[in-house]
Design brief:
492 residues, Catalase HpII,  Chain A, domain 1, 3 domains, 12 helices, binds protoporphyrin IX containing FE, EC 1.11.1.6, Catalase
């Protein structure tokens, strides 16, 4: 026996049962009792350990995106964008990087149905040679609010009522009636694509604006988009009810079964870029997360493909313990001043230290595959084996040095401290354009969903009027239709 080779791992399973410390277990059926009828002896350490482990099997579920499914595969560069970024994993066509992807719903619990109207998470962890890059996106390209200060309230409004524990429309339309910037997101959520058919048939988007930086330090704002090669498919209400009624894990199953059958899901990655010197040229703020960048002015550029060709081995290790974080980037990709992104940079690792513990990045699914080193260590559940004698920096005994410097955006930041809103809100134009791009039957379904939401008994006249005013500002005829079906006067 090589005592140093042994680690807790199913690769080294013994052919018989043992306790966690490795002692043989000769009876895994009966508790140790006085006589055959009991009482049970507390000294049955194996029984106590078995129950204690079981009692602690669950960890806190994610505050949002609790319900998810993951799979593994690779990302392959198909187009050269090395003039835009010095990111090593994007260095040239043909380069492949291993990934793990987690799809999710947002609002409901870990075991909730996958057929609910809700955005879907689309989070990709790239295990690059320069550390991990997490692209933590959604299936819609915009978001409800543009300032992270509003995120906890927004989530509370969308989550079940704390008294009834039921998701209630009056709370949702009440909260968002204060936030006309949410209209654009609602043209996605209340559209047919508000219930994707499954995870394979939906788009993905980085949503927030990031920055690509070239070797020479030139920065470009960037938005990331995933397009499924098998097309986008959605469920209408009746289909969703039928599917959800017979299998509340249909999307997880679809993903798992497709990969097991060798029918590997694939997405193409596209980017849109804006030169920061041109950011004032638009009638919207490009860093406003409630806006899309019009593709006719800022075209999609192909970058690569994502293929999911391996199912996870263990749901707890590779789904529950997975931790994605928008602040985990690599040289060549940086944040932007997008206020919502700035808040996300803080929130994810904070919740993960709570949800998984301070050493969550040592967990195999989260740890970089590249070599890494620092003097941040110990704490609960540290399982990194270290043998250094120098755990401080700098030291004349330790050759570890700084990594090579890489470029980050060099734009000057200027402004006074303030709590304020952005200048170019432009809340109504893009939602109106999107609604007008729908075919008439699609518009009709969109209107029906709004009538249903606004018909909740607890929605007041005032709230209905505000929504009619908002939708009228996006599209006059939409406002008129809503008003007439709700027996209200159209207003502006
Ligand atoms: C300020 C705004 C936001 C805050 C504070 C926030 C916060 C969070 C938190 C706390 C989690 C749980 C993480 C965990 O426990 O591992 C989470 C998960 C997630 N968020 Fe956000 N979020 C925000 C906006 C967004 C936006 C705009 C997107 C889409 C681009 C997004 C996509 C996701 C995804 C995909 C997950 C699930 C990751 C996974 O699969 O584990 N979030 N978010």
């Amino acid at each position: 026996m090589d005592p140093y080779k042994y680690r807790p791992s199913s690769a080294y399973n013994s052919p018989f049962f043992t306790t966690n410390s490795g002692a043989p277990v000769w009876n895994n059926n009966s508790s140790l009792t006085v006589g055959s009828r009991g009482p049970v002896l507390l000294e049955d350490y194996h029984l106590v350990e078995k129950l204690a482990n079981f009692d602690r099997e669950r960890i806190p579920e994610r505050v949002v995106h609790a319900r998810g499914a993951s799979a593994k595969g690779f990302f392959e560069v198909t187009h050269d964008i090395s003039q835009l970024t010095c990111a090593d994993f994007l260095r040239s066509p043909g380069v492949q990087t291993p990934v793990i992807v987690r799809f999710s719903t947002v609002i409901h619990e870990r075991g909730s149905p996958e057929t609910l109207r809700d955005p879907r998470g689309f989070a990709v962890k790239f295990y690059t040679r320069e550390g991990n890059f997490d692209m933590v996106g959604n299936n819609f390209p915009v978001f409800f609010v543009r300032d992270g200060m509003k995120f906890p309230d927004m989530v509370h409004a969308l989550k079940p009522n704390p008294k009834s524990h039921i998701q209630e429309n009056w709370r949702i339309v009440d909260f968002f009636s204060h936030h006309p910037e949410s209209l654009h997101m609602f043209t996605f959520l209340f559209d047919d694509i508000g219930i994707p058919q499954d995870y394979r048939h939906m788009e993905g988007s980085g949503v927030n604006t990031y920055t690509l930086i070239s070797k020479t330090g030139k920065a470009h704002y960037v938005k990331f988009h995933w397009k499924p090669t098998c097309g986008v498919k959605s469920l209408l209400e009746e289909e969703a009810i039928k599917i959800g009624g017979s299998n509340h894990s249909h999307a997880t199953q679809d993903l798992y079964d497709s990969i097991a059958a060798g029918n590997y899901p694939e997405w193409k990655l596209f980017i849109q870029t804006i030169d920061p010197d041109h950011e004032d040229r638009f009638d919207f703020d490009p860093l406003d997360v409630t806006k899309t960048w019009p593709e006719d002015i800022i075209p999609l550029q192909p970058v690569g493909r994502l293929v999911l060709n391996k199912n996870i081995d263990n749901f707890f290790n590779e789904n529950e313990q997975l931790a994605f974080c928008p602040s985990i980037v690599v040289p060549g990709i940086y944040y932007s001043d997008d206020k919502l992104l700035q808040t996300r940079i803080f929130s994810y690792s904070d919740t993960q230290r709570h949800r998984l513990g301070p050493n969550y990045l040592q967990l195999p699914a989260n740890a970089p595959k590249a070599s890494h080193h620092n003097n941040h260590y110990d704490g609960f559940m540290n399982f990194m084996h270290r043998d250094e004698e120098v755990d401080y920096f700098p030291s004349r005994y330790d050759p570890v040095r700084h990594a090579e410097r890489y470029p980050i955006p060099s734009a000057l930041l200027k402004g006074k401290r303030e709590k304020s809103i952005i200048e170019k809100e432009n809340n109504f134009k893009q939602p109106g354009e999107r609604y007008r791009s729908f075919a008439p039957d699609r518009q009709e379904r969109f209107i029906r969903r709004w009538i249903e939401a606004l018909s909740d008994k607890r929605v007041t006249y005032e709230i209905r009027s505000i929504w009619i005013s908002y939708w009228s500002q996006a599209d006059k005829s939409l406002g008129q239709k809503l008003a007439s079906r709700l027996n209200m006067r159209p207003s502006m």
